[in-house]
Amino acid sequence: MGILIFHVPVALLCLFVASSIASAQDRDTHALPSASALYREFEDDPITAIDRYVGKAVTLEGVRGKVILDSEGISAAVHIADRGKPNALILSFPDRNELAGVKKGQTFRFTCMVKKFEFGNVWLEDCAIANSAGGEAPRLLSANVLYRAFEEDEVNAANRYAGRFVTAEGLCGNVILLDDGKSAAVHVPDRHTPNALILSFPNRNELSGVSKGQRFVFTCGVRKFEYLKLWLEDCHLWR
């Protein structure tokens, strides 16, 4: 039996290769997932979606709906609609100032921790506006995420963080000036615990200009988790 040999023009072969490379690049640099797509995963198969997402950080795009400001003037909740449900996703922003300039009906990009799927809503917490130039780039470690790591699995968190320095961001709570006239303790809240993290600053002058409710970045040594509080020492503002 004879063998048929097909001669493919070089130009056509190059076009095929270029098309294959472009398709691979499209798969690797896909569009940022939408908030609606995440919601529908939970709606269609909640068990699989819970296993896949709960307790993990996601970076998404969605259309801003209603904003609910908390009574303390610090945090806010944002609703994102899907089809006829105005609050399909409920985003908790510990620092509501991050939402300045984001108007109702505007598409915006955010990073949150997926908390739960309950009452037909996807609840997300510890949210922050993501960098539009690289929404999926990792953020600084969140003080809230650090605290919850100890709250949920103290042994593993201690093995990972205790005795090490971390750089994190959080909301400034109460500042307590100590009797030595030099140092100060700063409380960082998490949910309904106003002093979930207690930061020890040997030089309290570093805190000038940092006001209550302001998001700030700090570097501290992780000391211990005791009495459901995370104690950090030798803290400095991150410059």
Could you explain how this protein is built, in words?
With 239 residues, the protein is of the alpha+beta class. The protein has two domains: 35-137, Nucleic acid-binding proteins (OB fold (Dihydrolipoamide Acetyltransferase, E2P)), CATH 2.40.50.140; 144-237, OB fold (Dihydrolipoamide Acetyltransferase, E2P), CATH 2.40.50. Helices cover 23% and strands 41% of the residues. It has five helices and twelve strands. It has a seven-stranded mixed sheet. A five-stranded mixed β-barrel has the order 1-2-3-5-4. Helix 2 (35-44) crosses helix 3 (46-53) and helix 4 crosses helix 5. The termini are far apart. Mean pLDDT is 83; it is low at 10-31 and 133-139.
Structure in a nutshell:
By secondary structure, the protein is α+β, with helices and mostly antiparallel strands.
Name a few traits of the molecule.
single chain; 239 residues; alpha+beta; OB fold (Dihydrolipoamide Acetyltransferase, E2P); 2 domains; 7-stranded mixed β-sheet; 5-stranded mixed barrel; 5 helices
CATH architecture of the largest domain: Beta Barrel
Shape label: globular
CATH topology of the largest domain: OB fold (Dihydrolipoamide Acetyltransferase, E2P)
Radius of gyration: 23 Å
Largest sheet: 7 strands, mixed
Count of separate structural domains = 2
SSE diagram, text form:
Layout: H1 10-28, H2 35-44, H3 46-53, E1 57-69, E2 76-82, E3 85-93, E4 107-118, E5 121-129, E6 141-142, H4 143-152, H5 154-161, E7 165-171, E8 175-177, E9 184-190, E10 193-201, E11 215-226, E12 229-237
Parallel strand pairs: 3-5, 6-7, 10-12
Antiparallel strand pairs: 1-2, 1-4, 2-3, 4-5, 7-11, 8-9, 9-10, 11-12
Helix pairs in contact: 2-3, 4-5
